[in-house]
Every structure is written in C-alpha cells, then in structure tokens.
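Q&A log
Question type: sequence-to-structure
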Amino acid sequence: MQLENYEVHLPNYSIGDHIYDKIGPVCGSYGKKVLVIGGKKALDAAYDKIRFYVDQTDLEIIGKEYYGENCTYATVEKLRSMPIYQEADMVFGVGGGKALDTVKCLCITDDKPVFAFPTIASNCSACTSVSIMYNEDGTFLKPHFFIRPVMHAFIDTEIIAKAPVRYMWAGIGDTYAKYYEATISSREERLEHFTALGALVSRMCRDPLLEYGPKALDDHRKGLCTYDVEQVVLAIVVTTGIASIFLTKDYTPDYNSGLAHAVFYAMTAYPVIEERHLHGEVVGFGVLLALLVDGQDEEFEQIYRLNRALGLPVSLEQIEITDEQWEECRKRIPDMSDVAHYPYRVTEEMLADAMDRLKERVRKDADEEE
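Response status: OK
Response body:
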C-alpha cells in the first residue's frame, strides 16, 4: 500500500452550562469584529447570553443576521454579498444543523474564522467538517466537505436543556445510526488508519444512548441539565462529529452513510417529511430496516426497544408515509450513493422483506398489549 501524505483536523469544543465565558480566551486571537448569524429561534435563545459574555472581552459584535430558510448555495451567496460579512473578522454561527451548515459553508470556504454555538442537540454539525446542502425546493442536494471543522464549538448545555425536547429525541436516532452504518460499510475491509479510527469511535455513538438515553430525555423534558443529558449531548454533537471527520477524510459518504440515511433521503421526496418530521427521527426508523436487511436480529431488537421507549418511530404510519410511497422509495434506494459502498447490493426484495418483518414485530407488540 502506497504511503500517503494527509492531514486531519479534529474539533475543539467546550461544554457546560457557563462555557460562554471561554469566548474571550478562545476567540480573541482571531480579530475584534464579530458577526452573529443564526436561526430566529436560536438567536432568541442564545444571543443575549452570547452578548453578555462578549461584552466582557475586547471583542465587538457588529451585527446579528438571520441565516435564511435552508442550507442552500443561494443562501450562502446571499450572506457572502453582505457588506457586514466582509467587515467581520469572525462569525459566530448559532442554531441547529441547517443554520450551522450554512455558516460553515460560507466561512470555511472563505477561510474566515467561524465558531459554532449549537442551541439544540439534534446532530453533529457543530463539530464536523461537512455541510448538508439542499436544493431550493428543500430536497437533498449533496454533502459539501471541508478540510476542517469550525475553529471551536461552544456547547452550552443550559441552553440545550431548555430547547424543545424533540430535537434531542431525533438526534438520538441520527447518532446511533452512525455506528451501524460505519461498521456495515467498512466490514471485512483493510481500512486506512483514519477510517478504522472512525469506525471504532462510532461505537461511542451508540453505547451512551443505550445507557443514558431514556433518563436524559426524561430530564430534558423537565428542563434539567444533568449528567445523563450531558452524556447524550456529547454523543450527538461531539462523538458523531469526530467519527464523521475520520470517516469522510476522503470526501466520500462511503463509510459515513448507509441504508438508514438512504431511507431518509428517499423519503424527502414527500413534503410531509420536511414539513412535519425531523432528520434523525426518520433515520432512526431507517436503522431498524438496515439491521433487518443486514441480519442483525439482536441489534434490531435492542434498537426497536429503545425506539419504543423513547417514542421514536417503528412504523410507516408514525412518519406519515403510505405503503404506496414506501414502494416508490424502495425502487430508488438501491441506486443511491449512501448504499453504493455496502458490502452487498441492497435490493428491493431485501427492503420489502425487512418492512414485512418490521410490521410483524409491531403487530406482535400490539397483540401483547391488548
């Protein structure tokens, strides 16, 4: 095997309920002028706290801007054209995945220092080096990879604990998917060091969720910032981000995606998914199908029980997809890039059989509850 010269940039992060006091020491060497860009609800939740701590430093917030409606290249160009963006020495991205992905695509491409302030724990955008880009109609376009993540992520658990519970709830589904997709996609391969690291790290995307997930979600519903909540936030935001950086070092989704994500992206063809459901919610459902297709019956049972305990979907009805729509998805999934690197070809027949088995498992539960 030929020697290769390469670099890997891992995320820096602070986590806790008062970590914005690190803004000065962390950001001070990158300039003075700060532009804050984020989602509307995210800015409502975090801006005053950010401003309070910035005012205690030599930094100056020169503007606060709403990022837009979706992470598209048109949105990125609109922000890039703003004079206040050109004036800023650095950008603070505030919000969830789409807001942070937009700011990352803008700033990392321009080599402008950018810092992440996640306000929900639904995905790993704050700590990974990829932005998920969408078409103007809201359908998935492609992943946009970067050489590095943001300069630093400030993960305020107090703000996250006060966010709507559904975001962490969905984040759990997206996070345990990383373990199953990485290990299936890399099975029986001689892996590069970075890919092997990513696959090993990905186990920490599953184990803490099995151990702490139900209690963390219960604490989150009460607005509590507890150890269990912090462990789940770390798994969703940090561990998944680190695993993704290793797994996408070659700028491909080969080891960083899989059947669960193919199910989600196929279903984005139906507006109800973007309008009424969350990414991780649907991906968590897709994991059940992926495990059945892969013959991992014990793992399926474990995740099925976790989904039931957390209220994550175990049926098409829960994500408002009809059998007819599923049949259409089933035809598209085998040719999607997310499963192109699977150790076997995913077929329509495999998907149909997996869905039949999942429906039978749900019926069994219903019969036992009567």
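Response note: The first strand starts at residue 13 and ends at 16.
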